[in-house]
Specification:
Elements lengths: L5 H8 L9 E4 L5 H17 L5 E5 L19 E2 L2 E2 H8 E2 L3 E9 L2 E9 L7 E2 L2 E6 L2 E4 L4 H13 L6 E6 L1 H7 L2 H7 L8 H10 L3 E3 L5 E4 H7 L15 E5 L7 E6 L4 H15 L2 E6 L2 E6 L3 H13 L11 E4 L3 E7 L18 H9 L9 H11 L6 E4 L3 E7 L9 H17 L6 H8 L6 H13 L3 E3 L11 E3 L4
Parallel strand pairs: 1-2, 14-18
Antiparallel strand pairs: 2-7, 3-4, 5-8, 6-7, 8-9, 9-10, 11-13, 12-13, 14-15, 16-17, 18-19, 19-21, 20-21, 22-23
Helix pairs in contact: 2-4, 9-10, 10-12, 13-15, 14-15
Length: 484
């Protein structure tokens, strides 16, 4: 995060109540070894405090915050015959973004060392990691509880909170983010005062004060409300692609679009485009002939929302892709699944929790954990084949199939439908039975044996298991294999 105006940064730091663990005021201390320990200590403190940066400031009395000036010139310092900046970058591990600023203000010299932690692990200087305890610098290993808390803090760092675009003016924020879209989705009237808008966006984690009189737009703000995702380098390659194919394979396409807007700002338009591109069927509702998509909108919405919110943003050059074929829809997101495929419906884990929570709060997807459940239920009600979840090392693909009769289903498709139906029954605190599975396939009672064969094969393959090991064949009930 580049510092644009060090004088403005100094003015902002002086507004802090005083020194704290991530901010150190000094006058003329230019000992490289001591500075190295302070860098480690302040960087680690910034991680614990969830701060973007830590600061060492020369030219300010620590007790009074009086601006007295300094003789330190960071850009001219040396350690032995080596430039200080090169030396300190070698001694600090992991490699950090560090900015050295020497500047004049009101006829006095000041220096600021701004440190941006990587959040990979605690910051080490030389052979040791340091921490500030009160006014003193201590070795981290001597304080095991602090060390444990620091490691936990490194694991909590998420992509959403990182900075997508630093040091923006109020006008630039309004230019780059679709604020109107947020208030429309939130069903609130947009405030007239910009400071109220800023306060709300900051609470949501979309903006951060940059301590230089401007604002930093976070990745969360960019990915959700960008007017043009391409203006934010960290998420520029994460726009959603929709590809329409003529038939059942990739030999011929009939069009491709790539979304430019943020996920929240553009979600309604994206969903509308996909639904309009899907094949329809005629139905009679209340005696009136009408058309509807052969795929339930709820299922399409949730599969797209899941791909957006659960993708791995650290995989460069990859973005969510929606592919529309004549007989199916495929939705792929970068990143392997955090959950086993067989537990996709009932287990709850999110890779980007803030992103998912914001999407839910704006009504763009179901409440936590309910989206896939509802999608599968809608698929069953339409008598569509069960979706296929395909996990790989670097992606997760979900395939939603178009209508097929029971006779057209492959053996694998029948077994998959049996398993997902059993899971849905279990979630509803119920059991799968021959009757419930016949209803799922919309089969009459005389097809009892055909359904029994599917259940028997599912038991044999250990996909489902009897609810009671002593139950007979009559009125038998079943649960997913992982229940036992």
């Amino acid at each position: 995060m580049a510092t644009v105006d060090p004088a403005a940064l100094l003015a902002r730091l002086l507004k802090e109540p005083g020194e704290n663990d991530w901010l150190e005021f000094k006058q003329n201390n230019n000992n490289p070894e001591a500075i190295g320990k302070w860098i480690s200590a302040c960087a680690n403190a910034a991680i614990l405090a969830s701060k973007e940066r830590a600061f060492l400031v020369w030219g300010v009395e620590d007790a009074t915050k009086k601006m007295v000036g300094t003789t330190v010139r960071l850009g001219q310092m040396k350690q032995g015959n080596e430039n200080f900046a090169n030396w300190i970058s070698r001694k600090i591990d992991p490699k950090l973004m560090m900015e050295l600023h020497d500047f004049e203000l009101d006829g006095k010299q000041f220096s600021i060392l701004a440190i941006e932690p990587t959040y990979d692990r605690p910051v080490r200087f030389g052979e040791e990691e340091y921490l500030r305890i009160g006014e003193n610098i201590k070795e981290l290993k001597d304080f095991p509880e602090h060390e444990k808390a620091l490691w936990l803090a490194t694991g909590r760092r998420r992509f959403e909170g990182a900075i997508a675009l630093p040091h923006q003016t109020a006008e630039q924020v309004l230019e780059k983010l679709d604020i109107d879209a947020y208030y429309k989705l939130a069903h609130e009237e947009k405030p007239q005062r910009f400071d109220e808008i800023i306060r709300r966006l900051s609470l949501l984690g979309l903006l951060k004060e940059d301590m230089e009189g401007g604002y930093d737009i976070t990745n969360l703000g960019a990915i959700l409300f960008a007017r043009d995702i391409g203006t934010f380098p960290s998420v520029a390659t994460k726009s959603v692609r929709v590809i329409r194919y003529v038939g059942r394979d990739k030999r011929a396409s009939s069009g491709e679009i790539e979304g430019k807007r943020g996920y929240a700002a553009g979600f309604a338009g994206l969903l509308g485009y996909v639904m309009k591109a899907l094949p329809t069927e005629e139905i009679y509702k209340n005696g009136i002939r009408t058309t509807q998509s052969i795929y339930p909108e709820t299922a399409i919405r949730e599969l797209i929302a899941n791909a957006l919110t659960h993708q791995d943003f650290t995989i460069s050059g990859a973005s969510p892709v929606i592919e529309l074929y004549s007989d199916r829809v495929e939705v792929t997101n970068p990143g392997n699944s955090l959950i086993e495929v067989d537990r996709m419906i009932d287990e709850r884990r999110s890779r980007n929790e803030k992103l998912a929570a914001t999407m839910r709060s704006l009504g763009l997807c179901e409440e936590r954990g309910g989206g896939l459940d509802k999608a599968i239920i809608e698929i069953e009600l339409r008598n569509l084949p069960a979706p296929n979840f395909i996990a790989s090392a670097n992606s997760m693909r979900v395939v939603l199939f178009g209508p097929k009769t029971f006779g057209e289903l492959s053996k694998e498709e029948k077994l998959r439908a049996c398993f997902f139906h059993c899971v849905l029954c279990w979630i509803k605190n119920d059991y799968m039975s021959n009757t419930s599975l016949r209803d799922r396939f919309m089969l009459p009672q005389e097809d009892y044996q055909a359904v029994s064969a599917i259940i028997s094969e599912s038991v044999k393959k250990r996909r489902v298991t009897p609810a009671d090991v002593n139950q007979g064949k009559r009125n038998a009930k079943y649960v997913p294999y992982w229940v036992r």
